[in-house]
Specification:
Layout (H helix, E strand, L loop, with lengths): L6 E5 L4 H12 L3 E6 L2 H13 L3 E6 L5 H15 L4 E4 L15 H28 L3 E6 L12 H21 L4 E8 L8 H4 L5 H4 L11 H12 L10 E4 L7
Helix pairs in contact: 1-2, 1-8, 3-4, 4-5
């Protein structure tokens, strides 16, 4: 198993990409701390992992809150004795409006969760990974953090920031055997795209706007995250892997 003996944290693990990745990590031998603000969904992810014979705990945490991220890392250490993998995945969208119509409060919340949350994850995970002899961090960016999309200003900015933060951290911590990479999913079948599905005019276009002509699954993203977190990607750091069905080329 590719993650045998490893301890991993997955934020945003109550559903979607986070849940699929937490399950994938556990299937590959990792002990997983599942975190989310959604306690019911997070506990369900843990149940699914245990049902398959894996080891997991749930830790409720808002990634925008420094104390809660710190406590998440400490709870993981207390339960599993270390930390080798961090999947900074928690993220939110916002109202699809012009930049001038987006409220300051909504802007702040999106930046806090999507970008500050990644910063805080790195801040508190890296010291522990150093003590464990190294590790792998994977951050969730987005296709929209690379090419952008109108009416998504805060989301675009936050996900673009994740890419540069990933490169920065890779440069800073490579000497400690800590690799830092990102995935940039395209349109994936998760809760965040529910409003798009409900738009009868736009959805037929959005759902096929890539080279493969379909949306992706959380499991397909999880496979990419697993690769970056595993020793198979031992010479890859500072990279952003697009998992978008060719959306960037479309």
């Amino acid at each position: 198993m590719r993650l045998d003996g490893k301890v991993a944290i997955v934020t945003g693990g109550a559903s979607g990409i986070g849940r699929a990745t937490a399950i994938r990590f556990a299937d590959e031998g990792a002990k997983v701390a599942v975190s989310d603000i959604d306690e019911t969904g997070g506990e369900e992810t843990v149940r699914l992992i245990r049902e398959r014979g894996g080891e997991a705990i749930f830790v409720k945490a808002d990634v925008a809150c420094a104390n809660e991220v710190h406590d998440l890392v400490q709870a993981t250490i207390a339960s599993f004795g270390g930390l080798h993998i961090l999947f900074n995945n928690a993220g939110i969208g916002h109202s699809e409006v012009r930049s001038t119509e987006l409220s300051e409060e909504e802007w702040d919340r999106v930046i806090d969760v999507n970008l500050k949350g990644v910063f805080l994850g790195i801040k508190y995970a890296v010291p522990v990974m150093k003590q464990c002899g190294g590790g792998a961090i994977v951050n969730t960016s987005s296709l929209l953090g690379i090419k952008g999309k109108k009416y998504e200003s805060a989301y675009n900015a936050s996900k673009a920031g994740v890419i540069l933060l990933t490169k920065n951290a890779a440069l800073e911590y490579g000497k400690f055997n800590i690799r830092v990479n990102a995935v940039a999913p395209g349109v994936i079948d998760t809760n965040i795209i529910t409003p798009w599905k409900q738009d009868a005019r736009k959805w037929p276009i959005i759902s096929k706007a890539n080279a493969l002509g379909r949306i992706g699954t959380p499991e397909e993203v999880a496979n990419a995250v697993l690769f970056l977190a595993s020793d198979e990607a031992s010479f890859i750091t500072g990279a952003t892997l697009s998992v978008d069905g060719g959306g960037l080329t479309f």
